[in-house]
Amino acid sequence: MEQHQRAYNFNAGPAALPLEVLERAQSEFIDFRGHGMSIMEMSHRGAVYEQVHNEAKQLLKELFHIPDGYDVLFLQGGASTQFAMVPMNLLAAGKVGAYVHTGSWASKAIKEAELIGETRVIASTEADRFMRMPAPEEIVVPANAAYVHLTSNETIEGTQFAAYPDTGAVPLIADMSSDILCRPVDVSKFGMIYAGAQKNLGPSGVTVVIAKEELLANSPATIPTMLRYSTHYKNNSLYNTPSSFSIYMVNLVLQWLKDRGGLAQVERDNQAKAELLYGVIDSSGDFYRGCAARDSRSMMNVTFRLTDEELEKTFIKEAGEAGFVGLKGHRSVGGLRASIYNAVPYASCEALVQFMKQFQQKNG
Ligand SMILES: Cc1ncc(COP(=O)(O)O)c(C=O)c1O
């Protein structure tokens, strides 16, 4: 399939996957590496699948420079299940779950934690309509915190942490669903990082958890078996049937990222794409208006508005006719959003910028 037949895909998630990965999966779809069946048809207990599974873990450790003493889990239930698993496993009685409230996804994490234990919002940007991320010094860690939870990239608002707080001995837990592997991160600053795969890692159906082994090993026996980190940690994420096809796809995406030269290069490419889009917004003389505060702008989700909602509808309609997909903002906030995850090609961003300029010429 040639490149021009593929849509310009700016979906927020599930989102664009690398064409090379899709082609590789296609070539292996029916007969996986000479085994006479698809990877989907194999036992998760067999050596062939297990190699794919372990290689995916290894690749993630290598690419993200995950230090010794951490493990990687492949779970199901999406990042939304992690909103509950984090407090169920780690919020002991007498301790407080400390949350940084930065918008739509942080809010969901907080609501789940409130069902489970004592929860406190220790910093919030609600007064700024969540259009910025707090500076590290705004985040003050309570003495009795079990952990500090933050959302590294708010997918809906289009904001992203530029720098993470230092929480000392208290584990820092990050929902990185929409920006994992978009740049190098010092993983040793975190107790746990989790992410649904369907933006930067692969297809939906698997959630990656990266955590210090001490946080994974000691889950309370009072919570259901499948919701204990320790169950999955002790069984190499093979306690029950894993989402094998999704994990295989994650393996291919990680291999693709490695072949691109690793995360420093990926970050440069992402910055170049983001600069293109924010550039056309900023030079439009207020025709396009970026939603997020400049120092909190997301490299992954570019949110912007036009002066009136009717014009936004026209923009989405005409963009759709020109082959652009996924530019409508989330229904809860409206406006426009271009999600430019790792796999979105630079050429797609160039095409969008061209379209935006022409749209302004016609309507400005
Ligand atoms: C930052 C963030 N957290 C959590 C979620 C929820 O993920 P899931 O649908 O895998 O439960 C999303 C999904 O868009 C997200 O963007």
Automatic annotation (TrEMBL):
<feature type="binding site">
    <location>
        <position position="198"/>
    </location>
    <ligand>
        <name>pyridoxal 5'-phosphate</name>
    </ligand>
</feature>
<feature type="binding site">
    <location>
        <position position="105"/>
    </location>
    <ligand>
        <name>pyridoxal 5'-phosphate</name>
    </ligand>
</feature>
<comment type="pathway">
    <text>Amino-acid biosynthesis; L-serine biosynthesis; L-serine from 3-phospho-D-glycerate: step 2/3.</text>
</comment>
<keyword id="KW-0963">Cytoplasm</keyword>
<keyword id="KW-0028">Amino-acid biosynthesis</keyword>
<feature type="binding site">
    <location>
        <position position="155"/>
    </location>
    <ligand>
        <name>pyridoxal 5'-phosphate</name>
    </ligand>
</feature>
<dbReference type="InterPro" id="IPR015424">
    <property type="entry name" value="PyrdxlP-dep_Trfase"/>
</dbReference>
<feature type="binding site">
    <location>
        <begin position="240"/>
        <end position="241"/>
    </location>
    <ligand>
        <name>pyridoxal 5'-phosphate</name>
    </ligand>
</feature>
<keyword id="KW-0032">Aminotransferase</keyword>
<protein>
    <recommendedName>
        <fullName>Phosphoserine aminotransferase</fullName>
        <ecNumber>2.6.1.52</ecNumber>
    </recommendedName>
</protein>
<keyword id="KW-0718">Serine biosynthesis</keyword>
<comment type="subunit">
    <text>Homodimer.</text>
</comment>
<dbReference type="InterPro" id="IPR015421">
    <property type="entry name" value="PyrdxlP-dep_Trfase_major"/>
</dbReference>
<feature type="binding site">
    <location>
        <position position="175"/>
    </location>
    <ligand>
        <name>pyridoxal 5'-phosphate</name>
    </ligand>
</feature>
<dbReference type="InterPro" id="IPR015422">
    <property type="entry name" value="PyrdxlP-dep_Trfase_small"/>
</dbReference>
<feature type="domain" description="Aminotransferase class V">
    <location>
        <begin position="8"/>
        <end position="345"/>
    </location>
</feature>
<dbReference type="GO" id="GO:0005737">
    <property type="term" value="C:cytoplasm"/>
</dbReference>
<feature type="binding site">
    <location>
        <begin position="79"/>
        <end position="80"/>
    </location>
    <ligand>
        <name>pyridoxal 5'-phosphate</name>
    </ligand>
</feature>
<comment type="similarity">
    <text>Belongs to the class-V pyridoxal-phosphate-dependent aminotransferase family. SerC subfamily.</text>
</comment>
<comment type="function">
    <text>Catalyzes the reversible conversion of 3-phosphohydroxypyruvate to phosphoserine and of 3-hydroxy-2-oxo-4-phosphonooxybutanoate to phosphohydroxythreonine.</text>
</comment>
<dbReference type="InterPro" id="IPR000192">
    <property type="entry name" value="Aminotrans_V_dom"/>
</dbReference>
<keyword id="KW-0663">Pyridoxal phosphate</keyword>
<dbReference type="GO" id="GO:0006564">
    <property type="term" value="P:L-serine biosynthetic process"/>
</dbReference>
<dbReference type="GO" id="GO:0030170">
    <property type="term" value="F:pyridoxal phosphate binding"/>
</dbReference>
<feature type="binding site">
    <location>
        <position position="45"/>
    </location>
    <ligand>
        <name>L-glutamate</name>
    </ligand>
</feature>
<dbReference type="InterPro" id="IPR022278">
    <property type="entry name" value="Pser_aminoTfrase"/>
</dbReference>
<keyword id="KW-0808">Transferase</keyword>
<dbReference type="InterPro" id="IPR020578">
    <property type="entry name" value="Aminotrans_V_PyrdxlP_BS"/>
</dbReference>
<feature type="modified residue" description="N6-(pyridoxal phosphate)lysine">
    <location>
        <position position="199"/>
    </location>
</feature>
<dbReference type="Pfam" id="PF00266">
    <property type="entry name" value="Aminotran_5"/>
</dbReference>
<dbReference type="GO" id="GO:0004648">
    <property type="term" value="F:O-phospho-L-serine:2-oxoglutarate aminotransferase activity"/>
</dbReference>
